[in-house]
């Protein structure tokens, strides 16, 4: 292996030594050395001018960065509820057993680490895992068995069978966006012919609203950014698709990346930006190479770089930044912090990114799908787009559908489609509930399947997980509360502590120790999060608990102890340490309460 | 007639200047809004959320909320008070806050704000985390048990002392304070009792060594007046005083 000094030297020479490079450099070091060695921190501290303590704090913020060596094969099983429903736990246990390794702890010979990670965005072809950052889909016992063999034999991941790494698009329904191919460069030509104002008018007319979930009007956002006076403007594409159950951006980046880059360049031309960033979640590392190639093709075609399409002064280029396992970075201001190389803590707002974003400069942050739609609107017009959808929610929306249905995958529908229609199309039978918009979203019971997916009825960022009547919804809730505990950035009190309190109470319900008092507590704490958390992720974190409490009260009530109060402290459980120390587990070593 | 801009806080007109936060203007007008991660001498942070107020039915941290003309701010409804109590209770169960055994008792803002908010018990199930003490520094101690992650020492050390002795590392419930030294020990940093960061800790996490109960319990800062009357300046003066007059016996 290359020695650390020369590796870092090359890295710093190639991609710069400004403080904003920190996270990208750390990701590169992690990849090369399976951890961030102490000496690397010293060198980066000196060269980037960042105190070591801040570098530690960045490393320990991102789940994919480590200060201690990981195994040569670093394996993370995706742990979304959909992976669980497909049996990821048993597969991981089996793999740990076969490789004789404890979850989260590198094997003594340093060969392998295995642990769980948050949803990796392969819910339609799970269970899934990442090996050294690269996605493996459709896990079966056989596939695990083969992987164990390859690991023990020391075969490099690059030489593993290619079919392990096939990630399918699974586009099940196409509508106006996916049907209409965009000729490379046509949106930019449209800009040069019609002018920026005309395109902004098209966007206004189209009614396009942000596809990430918040639904801010795209035309308004671009105009605000353009009108904010500054020497630099930036365009950021948010491809940190971390909401559990969402994977439509992965498909767009795999098969429609050129359109996304076209949308970014269009935005750059309009707001006066010379630089754009695609922030790609670390879980989608395997897309990086093809994305880089697409960028290069566009540079070669004079669709990126200086004087784009021969237009004097139309300069714009795009750089890809990787994330490293942090859900909160999907929040736009946290994403900007992360782009600047820092911990992804959401900023105070206002000011909003349109006036003070990346490097405190006006910045447009748009979802992948929004940019793709904007490029098409520039070519086909606002009327074309608003011919689909509802008056408040124009156009079409991509949905990531997974869970209990025959045909999971990506579906494009006009806004206003009913949940019932979607369920029929994907082959969902005997459905108990639909979780819309991910872990932070809404739980929809059958009596509400008549409702429309639209900003004016049930809004959605695009994730739709289906649960049939055999499923225990509390397992879903617990999966989500654990997810939020793991992913909370820890900045504000309600999300950091309240999230954990809620998780512990849901666990208490799960093990049958909870009472109606605990239900009351869950509601109270949930309301505090909704009202007082610092960012949108904190305020939506309790949604799944509160929604299921309201719409599926039986999920909780049938597990409650019929008493008004039950202590969280379990005396028998507290004796576990003593039992382990004495090596006893017999009847006499247990307290049987109530017997 | 005065032309100064005002907003209403619990019905009272509060004058403000452009750029003021609701907290700035309220404190200047002698209206107390409980706060822990905020110190009026330094830029606001907005992490503890204890200064939550209601504006147009929305709850938001007043230390980061820009004041605007005609705003109607709720600082005392039962809704707001209960939310604050719950946030404080959360902070109490997150760490190990054993007030009777803490040198900071009576001078502690967490304790004083809790009294002010009418918090009678920590209410929630304690996490009882296993946390240590860092006694490596010759003059100062760090008690992880008591840290509420307000980030004041981080900000003051970085922006006022220009030292960056501290950072908050990890994330979520595993967030914790870390020190800028190869060993990770406070004693191996350039932290000094004369740093401004040494006297900003609102709780008993950063304390001078060799000092114990010089001022008896019962005669301390918040024993005479509630925190709503004492003010941040007096609190910091007391902490500074301790640092300059204390120290090991010659």
Summarize the structure.
By secondary structure, chain A is α/β, with parallel strands linked by helices. Helix content of chain A is 43%, strand content 12%.
Structure characterization notes:
The complex is a heterodimer of chains A (595) and B (250). The mean pLDDT of chain A is 95. Chain A is 43% helix and 12% strand. The longest helix of chain A has 18 residues, at 493-510. Chain A has 26 helices and 14 strands. In chain A, the strands form 3 sheets. Chain A has a 6-stranded mixed β-sheet. Chain A has a 4-stranded mixed β-sheet with strand order 2-1-3-4, covered by helices on one side. A 4-stranded parallel β-sheet of chain A has the order 8-7-6-9, sandwiched between helices. Chain A is of the alpha/beta class and 595 residues long. Chain B is of the alpha+beta class and 250 residues long. In chain B, a hairpin with a 6-residue loop joins strand 8 (166-169) and strand 9. In chain B, helix 2 (78-94) runs antiparallel to helix 3. Chain B folds into 2 domains: 7-76, Ubiquitin-like (UB roll) (Roll); 96-245, 2-Layer Sandwich (Alpha-Beta Plaits). The relative contact order of chain B is 0.14. In chain B, the strands form 3 sheets. Chain B has a 5-stranded mixed β-sheet with strand order 2-1-5-3-4, with helices on both faces. In chain B, strands 6-7-10 form a 3-stranded antiparallel β-sheet, with no helix packed on it. Chains A and B meet through helix 4, helix 19, helix 20 and helix 21 of A and strand 4, helix 2 and strand 8 of B.
């Amino acid at each position: 292996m290359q020695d650390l000094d020369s590796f870092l030297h090359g890295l710093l020479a190639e991609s710069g030594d400004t403080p904003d490079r920190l996270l990208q450099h750390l990701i590169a070091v992690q990849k090369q050395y399976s951890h961030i060695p102490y000496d690397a921190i010293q060198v980066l501290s000196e060269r980037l001018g960042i105190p070591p303590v801040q570098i530690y704090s960045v490393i320990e913020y991102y789940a994919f960065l480590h200060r201690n060596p990981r195994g040569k094969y670093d394996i993370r099983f995706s742990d979304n509820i959909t992976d669980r429903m497909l049996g990821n736990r048993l597969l991981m246990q089996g793999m740990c057993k076969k490789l004789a390794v404890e979850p989260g702890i590198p094997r003594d010979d340093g060969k392998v680490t295995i642990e769980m990670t948050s949803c990796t965005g392969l819910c339609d072809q799970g269970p899934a895992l990442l090996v050294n950052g690269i996605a493996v889909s459709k896990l079966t016992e056989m596939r695990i068995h083969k992987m164990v063999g390859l690991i023990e034999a020391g075969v490099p991941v690059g030489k593993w069978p290619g079919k392990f790494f096939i990630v399918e698009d699974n586009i099940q329904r196409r509508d106006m966006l996916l049907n209409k191919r965009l000729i490379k460069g046509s949106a930019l030509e449209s800009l040069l012919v019609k002018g920026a104002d005309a395109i902004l008018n098209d966007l206004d007319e189209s009614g396009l609203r942000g596809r990430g979930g918040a639904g801010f009007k795209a035309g308004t956002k671009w105009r605000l950014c353009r009108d904010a006076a500054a020497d630099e403007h930036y365009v950021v594409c948010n491809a940190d698709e971390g909401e559990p159950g969402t994977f439509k951006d992965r498909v767009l980046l795999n098969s429609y990346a050129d359109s996304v880059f076209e949308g970014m360049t269009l935005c750059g031309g309009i707001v006066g930006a010379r630089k754009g960033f695609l922030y790609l979640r670390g879980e989608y590392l395997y897309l990086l190479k093809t994305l880089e190639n697409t960028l290069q093709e566009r540079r070669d075609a004079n669709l990126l770089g200086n004087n784009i399409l021969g237009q004097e002064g139309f300069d714009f280029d795009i750089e890809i930044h990787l994330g490293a396992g942090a859900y909160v970075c999907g929040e736009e201001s946290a994403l900007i912090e992360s782009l600047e190389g820092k911990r992804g803590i959401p900023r105070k707002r206002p000011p909003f990114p349109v006036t003070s974003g990346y490097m405190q400069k006006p910045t447009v942050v748009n979802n992948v799908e929004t940019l793709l739609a904007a490029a098409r609107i520039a070519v086909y017009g606002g009327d074309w787009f608003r011919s689909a959808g509802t008056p408040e929610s124009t156009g079409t929306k991509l949905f990531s559908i997974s869970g209990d249905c025959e045909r999971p995958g990506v579906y494009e529908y006009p806004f206003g489609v009913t949940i019932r229609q979607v369920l029929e199309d994907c082959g969902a039978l005997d459905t108990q509930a639909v979780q819309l918009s991910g872990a932070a979203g809404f739980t929809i019971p059958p009596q509400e399947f008549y409702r429309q997916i639209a900003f004016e009825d049930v809004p959605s960022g695009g994730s739709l997980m289906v649960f049939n009547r055999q499923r225990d919804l509390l397992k879903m809730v617990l999966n989500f509360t654990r997810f939020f505990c793991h992913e909370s950035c820890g900045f504000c009190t309600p999300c950091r502590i309240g999230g954990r309190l809620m998780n512990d109470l849901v666990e208490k319900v799960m093990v049958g120790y909870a009472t109606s008092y605990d239900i009351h507590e869950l509601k109270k704490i949930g309301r505090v999060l909704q009202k007082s958390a610092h960012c949108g992720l904190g305020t939506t974190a309790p949604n799944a608990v509160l929604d299921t409490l309201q719409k599926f009260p039986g999920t909780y009530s049938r597990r409650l102890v019929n008493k008004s109060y039950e202590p969280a402290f379990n005396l028998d459980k507290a004796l576990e340490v003593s039992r382990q120390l004495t090596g006893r587990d017999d009847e006499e070593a247990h307290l049987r309460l109530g017997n | 007639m005065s032309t100064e801009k005002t907003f209403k806080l619990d019905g009272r007109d509060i004058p403000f200047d452009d750029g003021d936060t609701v907290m700035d203007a309220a404190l200047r007008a002698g209206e107390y809004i409980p706060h822990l991660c905020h110190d009026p001498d330094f830029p606001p942070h907005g992490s503890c959320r204890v200064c939550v107020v209601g504006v147009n039915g929305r709850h938001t941290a007043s230390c980061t909320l820009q004041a605007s003309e005609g705003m109607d701010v709720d600082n005392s409804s039962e809704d707001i008070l209960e939310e604050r109590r719950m946030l404080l209770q959360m902070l109490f169960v997150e760490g190990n806050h054993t007030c009777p055994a803490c040198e900071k008792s009576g001078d502690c803002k967490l304790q004083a704000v809790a009294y002010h908010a009418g918090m009678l018990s920590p209410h929630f199930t304690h996490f009882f985390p296993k946390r240590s003490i860092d006694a490596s520094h010759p003059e100062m101690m760090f008690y992880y048990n008591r840290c509420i992650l307000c980030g004041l020492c981080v900000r003051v050390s970085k922006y006022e002392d220009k030292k960056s002795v501290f950072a908050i590392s990890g994330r979520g419930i595993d967030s914790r304070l870390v020190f800028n030294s190869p060993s990770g020990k406070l004693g191996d940093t350039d932290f000094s009792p004369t740093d401004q960061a040494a006297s900003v800790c609102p709780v008993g996490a950063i304390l001078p060594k060799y000092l114990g109960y010089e001022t008896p319990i019962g005669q301390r800062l918040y024993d005479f007046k509630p925190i709503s009357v004492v003010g941040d300046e007096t609190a910091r003066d007391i902490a500074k005083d301790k640092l300059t007059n204390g120290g090991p016996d010659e």
